[in-house]
């Protein structure tokens, strides 16, 4: 069945199709479609789905928490059926490394996305807690949310409230997912953060997308505190080098304050 853009805006990012051995099978809905093109996925839904696969591996080990997520985009991620598998790469009682991969269903030996996650043992360090930044307050949203207004797909599935900032300051936006990740399955706060955090590249953009393509090849997320809720603030800024490579960095907040940082490598090319 063909899903219209309006229907896609209400659809979850993925629909579960069952399993095949070690793989979980999912249909990618048009809600995952990238602002760069309707046939490829935005980076946030794959990051969130692979994060879900990793969290499910550790469901019975709540003493370990994700301290870092690293999404590597290995190729164009199609808006099509996909296969997902996850495994523990480095087991440990205090430090463990997990990996999850996504492959197109018609090319099961060609991963297009991979997430690795360091999980660390939690302990009580309340007495030495230190936040580098004060909480980020949300003000009135500006009229233009981003540079891709009207692009169907993923951008329609997120509440995107761009904030007014002074010239030369990092851009700020508050975001929350408007649709579930998978069908009506519960979505954890970490998965909800993953549903939006790849958009730091768009928030911190210093180039006009009408003139330049700036695709991120990865998204690294470092979390000194577990996220809470479903509303997240990003303060982001890109730096563009002289040879077509850039980096976007961001500070990440929830409603209770600063929770982490992210970084993305950019391929920068002229659109015309």
TrEMBL record:
Q: Where is the Acyl-CoA thioesterase-like N-terminal HotDog domain?
A: 33-119
Which SUPFAM superfamilies does the entry link to? Thioesterase/thiol ester dehydrase-isomerase
Q: Which domain of life is it from?
A: Bacteria
Q: Pfam families recorded for this chain?
A: 4HBT_3 (PF13622), 4HBT_3C (PF20789)
User: The Acyl-CoA thioesterase-like C-terminal domain covers which part of the protein?
Assistant: 143-268
Q: Which residues form a coiled coil?
A: none
* Name used for this protein in its record: Thioesterase
